[in-house]
């Protein structure tokens, strides 16, 4: 992952390094004597070169060397020994030296800049004192020329820092702008996952954030759509029992006392149906609304209890439990119990009497599969994809339940990060399987 943290850190580190380098450079420039002595082409190596000529060729050659330097760079030079006596005549007139001695020691009032340097010969170990006098016009011209490359370096550094700052700023503000637009669209329920597709392909923190935001947006859009669909389906499903209650009440108002007594069981039955429908709707809503933390679930004990309850409710349809020992996972036991119980009740509706219902539990890799198989007629292939949707009932099965049992089981599986698969068994009957991961991912 190309971390955004390291990019920002590298940019600021580079800026600090450039500023530090320029500060050191400017600090050297402020030390004018050292800067001139080391950088001015007329005196940078003059002491060494003059000493070599003086010691190898004599005083006349050394004097000639100074005169040629003066003609080229307009710099006057005096050379003294350790006792302060001149070794050569030099290029600085004695009258100018006397006039300089009568002036104030400060150099600001002199028409030249005076610099001194001591040089020790590596051959003879003699020490020479060289006095340089550079006219101010010559020094100013050299300063202007010598400052070209530091100023150029400063300009280049500023351009580089500006580009880096611009890149860092754009790398932060552009993704934030895209996320802001995505948040706005999400609030307006017009969010599209491909709006952050390019951002999600990045391999840094913004890419991870965009991927998580896409998952959140898809989940929210799915919840909003499912809630709207559920509201429409609930409104439609509640009309039928309410209409039957209205008819029964109207008949009861006009009926004789004997006929009214016969209508009471019908009213009670319709109230029970309505209560059962509302209970299943609330159960379906709780699966999505439950925000409790996952806990350790012992599946063997849970499945044993479900087997006993199913056998009591339908003794003519025994439940055969085939479960591996020691099955356990992290999840919500109430949801799992409710999901498997709905699968068993659905199987009991279509399983013929005398035929067993097979409840199987086994571990497959990082998942645990809980399957319920009946020996009924199964479902038409064209309806398998719709089974599990709220209030969907296959043709010919409209009297069997409200179409919420499989929907509750599917929502419970998705809440755990798993899935519900529905299929016709190859040997006949219908099989519903819950695939649950050992640890829920928490995104569903």
From TrEMBL:
Q: Does the UniProt entry include the keyword Transmembrane?
A: yes
Subcellular location per UniProt equals: Membrane
One MF term in the entry's GO annotations? phosphorelay sensor kinase activity
Residue stretches making up the Histidine kinase domain = 233-440
Keywords for the protein's UniProt record, in alphabetical order: Kinase, Membrane, Phosphoprotein, Transferase, Transmembrane, Transmembrane helix, Two-component regulatory system
State the reactions this protein catalyses.
Answer: ATP + protein L-histidine = ADP + protein N-phospho-L-histidine
Note the SMART domains from the entry.
HAMP, HATPase_c, HisKA
Q: What class of enzyme is it?
A: transferase
Its EC number is 2.7.13.3
Residues in HAMP domain copies: 170-225
Alphabetized Pfam families for the sequence = HAMP, HATPase_c, HisKA
Where would you say this protein principally sits, based on its record?
membrane
Question: What GO CC annotations are associated with the protein?
Answer: membrane
- Transmembrane portions of the chain: 12-30, 147-170
List the protein's name. histidine kinase
């Amino acid at each position: 992952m190309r971390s955004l943290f390291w990019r920002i850190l590298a940019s600021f580190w580079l800026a600090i390094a450039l500023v530090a380098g320029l500060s050191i450079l400017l600090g050297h420039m402020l030390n004018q004597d050292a800067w001139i002595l080391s950088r001015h082409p007329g005196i940078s190596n003059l002491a060494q070169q003059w000493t070599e000529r003086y010691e190898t060729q004599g005083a006349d050659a050394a004097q000639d060397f100074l005169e040629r330097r003066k003609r080229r760079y307009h710099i006057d030079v005096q050379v003294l020994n350790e006792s302060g006596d001149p070794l050569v005549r030099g290029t600085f007139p004695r009258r100018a030296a006397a006039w300089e001695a009568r002036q104030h020691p400060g150099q600001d009032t002199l028409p030249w800049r005076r610099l001194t340097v001591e040089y020790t010969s590596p051959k003879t170990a003699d020490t020479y004192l060289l006095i340089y006098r550079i006219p101010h016009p010559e020094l100013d011209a050299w300063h202007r020329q010598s400052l070209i490359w530091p100023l150029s370096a400063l300009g280049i550094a500023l351009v580089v820092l500006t580009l880096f700052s611009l890149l860092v700023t754009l790398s932060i503000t552009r993704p934030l702008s895209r996320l802001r637009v995505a948040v706005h669209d999400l609030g307006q329920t017009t969010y599209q996952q491909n709006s952050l597709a390019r951002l999600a392909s990045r391999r840094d923190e913004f890419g991870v954030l965009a991927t998580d935001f896409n998952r959140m947006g898809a989940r929210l859009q799915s919840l909003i759509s499912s809630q709207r669909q559920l509201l429409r389906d609930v409104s439609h499903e509640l009309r039928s029992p309410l209409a039957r209650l209205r008819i029964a009440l109207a008949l009861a108002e006009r009926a004789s006392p004997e006929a009214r007594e016969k209508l009471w069981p019908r009213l009670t039955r319709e109230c029970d149906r309505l209560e059962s429908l509302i209970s299943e709707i609330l159960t379906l809503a709780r699966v999505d609304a439950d925000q409790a933390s996952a806990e350790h679930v012992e599946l063997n004990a849970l499945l044993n209890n479900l087997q006993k309850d199913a056998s009591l409710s339908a003794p003519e349809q025994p439940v055969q439990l085939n479960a591996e020992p020691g099955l356990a996972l992290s999840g919500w036991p109430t949801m799992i119990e409710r999901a498997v119980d709905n699968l068993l009740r659905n199987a009991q509706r279509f399983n013929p009497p005398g035929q067993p219902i097979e409840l199987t539990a086994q571990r497959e890799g990082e998942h645990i599969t809980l399957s319920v198989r009946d020996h009924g007629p199964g479902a038409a292939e064209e309806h398998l994809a719709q089974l599990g949707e709220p209030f969907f009932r296959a043709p010919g099965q409209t009297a069997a339940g409200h179409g919420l049992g499989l929907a509750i089981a599917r929502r419970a599986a998705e809440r755990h990060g798993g899935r519900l698969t529905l299929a016709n068994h190859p040997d006949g009957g219908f099989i519903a399987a819950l695939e649950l991961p050992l640890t829920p991912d928490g995104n569903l």
